[in-house]
Write a structure and sequence with these properties.
By secondary structure, the protein is of the alpha/beta class. It has seven helices and eleven strands. The longest helix has 12 residues. The structure holds cytidine-5'-triphosphate and magnesium ion.
Length: 221
């Protein structure tokens, strides 16, 4: 059974506001992309990796993978206008023989072997997809404009991260349709009736969105 990883790194990082795309902003001594790339490459569970890079940054991404000795990187595609488009383009480079696809955001550099193991184990139990997620500790309300409409039961809520793992055929089918508006892969699988489970995530996987997030993650290195 071969497991392929798709690393979504093609975002522009507008909210971070750096002079380059988020994946190439410095985290420690290296571009942010290096951290997740090395971790996926070192994983015993992952056979090959496709990277989606920002337009014009394909070559730097390949060179970085070479410098780091990430030999599992199979190809690097030019990303699309949205995350979903980037994943779709990368998925097109995943061969038919791949049985499982793990999708991960470069904006979550501290991916661990343990969380990869947890999402993959769930597929072995028969789920179509598995996402890493955390409980919600705040009270969450649904609003319309300024008005609170409803207070949600937080016991039933999870904040969802990547990695997310899927049976490859299920993910391909989900990406064959309209992907506009999807903020994660699992939502597309759910929309087609796929069975998705949530496994324990990791607080260290919190996404880097702004400059403060970058400092917080750098301190965890
Ligand atoms: N992503 C992508 N292709 C896009 C947009 C996003 O591959 N067209 C990836 C990002 O590189 C990131 C992940 O999806 O790893 C989550 O996106 P986000 O945190 O929103 O990153 P950016 O889109 O780069 O940031 P911003 O929204 O602030 O521009
Ligand atoms: Mg974005």
């Amino acid at each position: 059974m071969s497991v392929w990883a798709v690393l979504a790194a093609a975002g522009s990082g507008e909210r971070l506001g750096a002079d380059r795309p988020k994946a190439f902003v410095r985290l420690g001594d290296l571009p942010l992309l290096a951290e997740s790339l090395e971790r996926l490459d070192a994983s015993d569970w992952i056979d090959a990796i496709v990277v989606a890079a920002p337009p014009g940054w394909e070559e730097p991404a390949i060179l970085l993978a070479e410098e780091l000795g990430c030999s599992k990187v199979s190809s690097c595609v030019t990303g699309g206008a949205t995350r979903a488009e980037s994943v779709r383009l990368a998925l097109a480079e995943v061969p038919e023989e791949a049985a499982v696809v793990v999708v991960h955001d470069a904006a979550r550099p501290l991916v661990s072997e343990a969380v990869i193991e947890r999402v993959l184990a769930a597929l072995n139990q028969g789920w179509d997809g598995a996402v890493s997620g955390l409980p919600v500790s705040d009270t969450v309300k649904r609003v319309e404009g300024d008005a609170v409409v409803e207070t949600l039961d937080r016991e039933q809520l999870r904040v969802v991260q990547t990695p997310q793992a899927f049976v490859a055929d299920v993910l391909r089918a989900a990406y064959a349709g309209d992907v506009a508006g999807a903020t994660d892969c699992a939502s597309l699988v759910e929309a087609r009736g796929g069975r998705v489970t949530v496994v324990a995530g990791d607080p260290r996987l919190a996404k880097i969105t702004d400059a403060e997030d970058l400092e917080r993650v750098a301190a965890l290195l």
